């Protein structure tokens, strides 16, 4: 979408500025967004320059390693290597653990894994993967996360023919959306 294209441009600018300033925290955050939006647009190959620069920074740390694995995961996913992508997501999940400081990344990683499983037709596995994002979204009472969870779960339950769960998640989605 044009909005995502614009967002990708802004995140790339934020990455470039933080790189010039040697601000690793903001560089990490900007790159997470660059990778995510590029993947959403199916344009991951277009960010190889940012990835090269990021690897050269070699500043280490959890977010640095998280981003390297995220890039590998989405690249593999776009290459059709879904099992390899899921292995990357599992590595990220293990790396993050139950660290409350990174709950948004934990959420994001489980959703990525569920979406990859969904594209493989592994709907029940995707539903299982979505339980952690549901827990995080409800605990933190974050409307944007809850909407995404209920929308994705309703689609998955519909695909497995579970009308009761489909309807329940759909209703939660619309009730929340109307608030």
Provide the descriptors you would attach to this structure in a database record.
10 helices, 179 residues, globular
Mean pLDDT over all positions = 96
Distinct helical segment count: 10
Low-pLDDT sequence parts: none
Number of strands: 0
Q: H/E series, N to C?
A: HHHHHHHHHH
- Into which percentage range does the β-strand content fall? under 5%
Question: Could you give the distance between the termini?
Answer: 26 Å
User: How would you characterize the largest beta sheet?
Assistant: none
Please state the overall shape, judged from the principal axes of the Cα atoms: globular
Helical amount among residues, as a percent range? over 70%
Oligomer: single chain
How does the helix and strand content classify structurally? mainly alpha
Rg from alpha-carbon coordinates:
17 Å
Describe this structure as you would to a colleague.
- The chain has 179 residues and is an all-alpha fold.
- It is 81% helix and 0% strand.
- It is built from ten helices and no strands.
- Helix 8 runs antiparallel to helix 9 (143-160).
- The longest helix is centred in the N-terminal third of the chain and has 19 residues, at 2-20.
Ordered list of secondary-structure elements with their pairings:
Blueprint: H1 2-20, H2 24-40, H3 48-57, H4 62-78, H5 82-96, H6 103-119, H7 123-129, H8 131-140, H9 143-160, H10 163-177
Helix pairs in contact: 1-2, 1-3, 2-4, 4-5, 5-6, 6-7, 6-8, 7-9, 8-9, 9-10
Quick description:
81% of the residues lie in helices and 0% in strands.
